[in-house]
Structure formats: C-alpha cells, structure tokens
Specification:
Blueprint lengths: L1 E11 L5 E11 L3 E5 L6 H9 L6 E5 L12 E4 L11 H11 L4 H14 L15 H13 L5 E5 L7 H18 L2 E6 L2 H7 L2 E6 L4 E7 L8
Parallel strand pairs: 3-7, 3-8, 5-6, 6-7
Antiparallel strand pairs: 1-2, 1-4, 8-9
Helix pairs in contact: 2-3, 2-4, 3-4
This protein binds adenosine-5'-diphosphate (ADP) (2 copies).
Length: about 220
C-alpha cells in the first residue's frame, strides 16, 4: 500500500525560489527509499511536505490510507544535527516528543527504555549530551524519533556530520533497526554510496527546480550486522 503520494507537486517560497516543480513520488509502506541529489535540489523540502511542516504551492501530498489528517504521531523526524537539549539527560531528551503529546515522564519510561535499547544506548539514560560522542548523540536523536513508534521515519542527511567509521556503524544499525521495526524510511542524502548501501529504492532528484529524474529499484540493502 501507498503511505504518501505526491502528485505534480510544486513548491515556491515567498522569496520566489521554486524548490520543486512537477514532483511525483509514491512512498510505499515498509520500504526504505533514498532521495538522492545535490545540495539545494529540494530534498529537505520533500521531507517537510511529508511531515506537514510546509504546504505545497500546487499539486497534492496525500495519505491515501490514512483515517485522519493528523499524521504527527506517525512520523519520526531525524535532522542533520542531533539537536539535543544540552541541559537535559539522554532519557529526558528521548521523552520530548511524548512530552509534547502530554505523556508524563513516568508513563513514558517504558518507551524511553525501549527506544534507547534499540539504538544500543540502554546504559546511557542518565548521561548528558556533552558526555557523548557525535555518533552516540545521533543515536539519541534516532531513539527520540522512535519514541512515538512512528510508521514513517524521515531522515535528513542524518550522518553527514559524523566521521566515516561512526557513519558505517550507524548505517548497519539503521538497517537492523528497520528490519526489526518494519517502519517505512525516507532517507535524504547526497551520497550515492550511502543511498545504494541502505535503500531498496533510490529516487534521484535534479535541481532547479527539484524533481525526480530517475528511479533505481530492486536494490537489496547491505548486510544486516
Ligand atoms: P536540499 O535539501 O536538497 O539541500 P532544500 O529543500 O533545502 O534542498 O532547498 C531547495 C531550494 O529551496 C534551495 O534553493 C533553497 O535555498 C530553497 N529554500 C529552502 N527552504 C526555503 C525557504 N524557507 N525559503 C526560501 N527558500 C528556501
Ligand atoms: P572491504 O571491501 O575490504 O570489506 P570496506 O572498507 O569496504 O572494506 O569495508 C570494511 C567493512 O565495513 C566491511 O565489513 C563492510 O561490510 C563495512 N562497510 C563498508 N561500507 C559500509 C557502509 N556504508 N556502512 C556500513 N558498513 C560498511
């Protein structure tokens, strides 16, 4: 089934920049799709449209099977920077999306523990962000995105700021996670290598204005470590 369907979408910002035009894409439940393209081709804009953080200027972004218009609880968003709150410990950082939905710290406890275990940080609940490596901070940010048990995980160049080795490890962890959770992932990257390693399908975008120019399908994701 189709989770999200873009039909002839365009997006022009108030400054006159057209980020997307004639953009078509279906995202299928359970797949790991990469959006691959150079900086500025509109990849982040696509994620923001999926998340409802922006509205299309023209065309439609639809959730064909959805029962309501509120998709917030179904989406986990991981940004390029881990964007953790420095004054809060790891567990409280992971609590944030649940907290915004009115879930108390006590009621969130099981979810927090579960999410941290998934990313291999079960022992770091009480640590503070400054005590962690870049890769660990990114894991916290992934755990935070998973705390709502999203059906759809949106990742915007999540590993761009990490060194090669941390990046390799996280790639394999992400594959394992997706295999376990069976959630749908949309992964934005400008790395050909990463997109081929991670995803079952690559949607290639070209810039000015951003649109899909090729699709590479039937890839088998890398080894599940
Ligand atoms: P990518 O994620 O592929 O680097 P973006 O979606 O961030 O691309 O941006 C696509 C284009 O839209 C770029 O030219 C960018 O400068 C422009 N853009 C993005 N967001 C805004 C905004 N809020 N206002 C004006 N222009 C924007
Ligand atoms: P080799 O080709 O000799 O195995 P590489 O440097 O390509 O050397 O890979 C070394 C190890 O890192 C291998 O176990 C490989 O599976 C793993 N690896 C390579 N690329 C990635 C990647 N993008 N993400 C995760 N692991 C990777």
């Amino acid at each position: 089934p189709t989770l999200v369907s873009f039909k002839d979408v365009s997006k022009t910002f108030s400054n006159g920049v057209t980020a997307l035009a004639g953009f078509d894409l279906d995202i299928f439940a359970g797949e790991f799709v990469s959006l691959l393209g150079p900086s500025g081709c509109g990849k982040s804009t696509v994620l923001r449209l999926i998340a409802g953080l922006a509205e299309p200027t023209d065309g439609s972004v639809a959730w064909p099977e959805a029962r309501s218009d509120d998709h917030r609880g179904e989406i986990g968003f991981v940004f390029q920077d881990a964007t953790l709150m420095p004054w809060a410990n790891v567990a409280d950082n992971v609590w944030l999306p649940l907290r915004l939905r009115g879930v108390s710290r006590r009621d969130a406890q099981d979810r927090i523990v579960e999410s941290l275990a998934l990313v291999g940080l079960g022992d770091f609940a009480k640590a503070y962000p400054r005590e962690l490596s870049g890769g660990m901070r990114m894991r916290v940010s992934i755990a935070r995105a998973l705390s709502l048990k999203p059906r759809l995980l949106l990742m915007d160049e999540p590993f761009a700021a990490l060194d090669e080795i941390a990046r390799f490890r996280l790639n394999d962890d992400l594959l394992r996670l997706q295999g376990e959770l069976r959630c749908t992932v949309v992964f934005v990257t400008h790395s050909v290598y990463e997109s081929a390693y991670l995803s079952s399908r690559i949607a290639v975008m070209s810039p000015r204005p951003g649109r899909i120019v090729a699709a590479i399908e039937g890839l088998s994701p890398g080894p599940r470590a």
